[in-house]
Amino acid sequence: MTYQEEYQSKLKTAEEAVKVVKSGDWVEYGAFAGQAYALDAALAGRAEELEDVKIRGCCTTMPPQVIAVDPDGKHFNYSSFHFSGLERKLGQKAQAFFVPMLFHEYPRYYRQELNHGEVKSNVVFIPVAAMDDSGYFNFGPEASHFHAMVEAADTVIVEVNASMPVCYGGYGENVHISDVDIIVENDRPLDEVPPANFGEIDKKVAEFVMGELFDGACIQLGIGGMPNAIGKMISESDLKDLGIHSEMFTDSMVDMVLSGRVTGKRKNINPGKHVYTFAMGTKRCYDFLDKNTSCAIFPVDYTNDPFVVGSIDNFIAINNCLEMDLYGQASSEAAGIKQISGTGGQADFMLGAYRSKGGKAIMALSSTVKMKDGTVKSRIRPTFDPYTIVTTPRSMMNYVATEYGIVNLKARSTWQRAEALISIAHPDFREELIQEAEKMNIWRKSNKR
Fold it and tell me: Where does the record locate the signal sequence feature (predicted)?
């Protein structure tokens, strides 16, 4: 049987395909820009026939139809490993639940934790590009844990999207037709995520971060306005031969490459390759990645492995957080009990970058935030409010940057950390922070004011 004959033998409508899902099953959805729209809609159409179907997704840009038709969760239970803005809203209505994780461990969950107890992986819905002549379906701009999902699932259903870019990688970026049980076709444009806007404060923070970069450095950037500001400054700088090894590939990285600032020539691992595990951006970003041999997508247990990151010389990890306490703990994913995003790869890269020869990990944040009621609060806090989730522990914190400067917390005592962090807090809040630090016994009389 030829690959095309096998393809035709496995081809079904989405409605036919989802009939394999039974009550009580665990169903795996896609992640990020890789979503199986037709299969989601078809499964939603079976809501009244099913009970207790548990669904796992990750940072979806797709409004899940299974939630739209079943907002009370009588038939479907939806969980996510990393909340998108959409899932954040669903979580506030108890329509989506969060799964804490370290991003580099994501594939291990499928290989080690699932199918060894009551947590199963029965059916997987994976969006893929068109099959190539060798019988392989490329996962497109998302490889983080997809191959591990295929390995763990009882039934593998791929949703073929002719608009999906083909993203070349090191390994784990595709699935062979022999490992696929059912094929569904659904051609549609990928969801686009426009770059976040950045303001004057973001630019000021970015300027301090830029002062830590140098020719030949290998860069990891997080998500949001501030990383975009840094990316723009890199594109407009005179830095040479930078490298990219990041979990996420974005539009700002396209600019960094096209400007000639990023070549990857000096990388001691994967030289000349712009390495990532998923991409979220505009069509321009996806088109840039499509069959681009200078880019390499890998599973997340490679890109985010702290030991892999630590083996890359001159690695600079740049991430951001919501707030930080005077001990140097960072809260980056939640506000009190409200889950906003997820741990993602922040801890992975914070640990890995510090292990790198010549490397450093930078946490960037604006010094203040304006609340909905118009009040302004310091992002640098004496202590966190109750129930605050700590994303990066104080023992892992390296450099911290605000619009008032950048400080290094490594090897610093609690009073040295308090002094350093207060020095880059907004001036309007420094005296109050000093008073609180004194109450906490982490302020010495000899400290600078």
Answer: none
pLDDT of res. 445: 73
Query: Alpha-carbon distance 118 to 147, whole Å?
Result: 22
pLDDT category of residue 449 using cuts at 50, 70 and 90: low
pLDDT digit string (tens) for 339-386?
999 999 999 999 999 999 999 999 999 999 999 899 999 999 999 999
Same fold, 3-185 and 200-440: yes
pLDDT tens digits, 228-264: 999 999 999 999 999 999 999 999 999 999 999 999 9
Query: Kindly report the CA angle at 396 between 391 and 400, in degrees rounded to 5?
Result: 85
Q: 248-249 and 155-160: which strand pairing?
A: unpaired
Does residue 438 have a pLDDT over 80?
A: yes
Q: Which amino acid is at 239?
A: L
First to last CA, the chain: 78
Residue 169 annotated as part of some ligand binding site: no
Residue 216 marked as a ligand binder: no
Say whether pLDDT at 154 is over 90.
yes
Q: Is 30 annotated as a binding residue?
A: no
Token pair recorded at residue 37: 């729209």
Please tell me the predicted confidence (pLDDT) of residue 115. Answer: 65
Is 222 flagged in the annotation as binding? yes
Q: Pick the catalytic residue: 247, 403, 419, 436? A: 247
- Token couple for 267: 């990388």
Nearest Cα neighbor of 176 from 206, 146, 136, 215 is 136
Q: Where are the domains of the chain?
A: 3-185, 200-440
Q: For residue 380, what are the contacts with CB-CB under 8 A and spacing of at least 6? A: 323, 324, 325, 326, 367, 402, 421, 422, 424, 425, 426, 429, 433
CATH topology for the 3-185 domain: Glutaconate Coenzyme A-transferase (3.40.1080)
140 belongs to an annotated ligand binding site: no
Catalytic (active site) residue 48: no
- How many other CB atoms sit within 10 Å of the CB of residue 148? 23
The top-level CATH class assigned to 200-440 is: alpha beta
Model pLDDT for residues 22-33, shown as the tens digit of each residue: 999 999 999 998
- Write down the pLDDT at residue 401: 98
Is 336 annotated to bind a ligand? Reply is no
